[in-house]
Amino acid sequence: MLCEHPAGTAPIAIEYTESIADPAVRSYFIPKVILQPLIENSIIHGSREPGSGPLQIHLEVQEIKTPGRQPYLQITLLDNGLGLEEGWSMEQVSGIGTRNVMSRIQLYCGEPYGLYLANRPEKGVAAMITLPVIETEEQLERLLRDQL
Prior knowledge:
Blueprint: E1 2-3, E2 12-20, H1 36-46, E3 55-64, E4 72-79, H2 96-109, E5 114-119, E6 125-132, H3 137-146
Parallel strand pairs: 2-3
Antiparallel strand pairs: 1-2, 3-4, 4-6, 5-6
């Protein structure tokens, strides 16, 4: 896929892949606008040098079941972009997208859930979202209503 870079520079090639361990997770609900800011950040901030190949974005979704704990959904977005700046931390984020995703997850779902970002050893960024398993629209509406 070729996309025009949002900054108006030359088009960039993007390869998107996904791994979903259990097809049942495709029917789970997540709060709106959780993935979009992260994918946008991969494209805007992760764009690679010309001639270095396509920007690869990979999405992994799985339900994690641990004895003694409620099952949860783990969504991991990986890219092969430029990575986070040295010394980067969530507290110093200047943009609203990433900070908004983290705040909304913790507001709606509680403290054990959230967004975690880190550089990948092989280059690029790993963004991991943890959410409670929400199997019905009613559960999602109740979760959102209880926090307002």
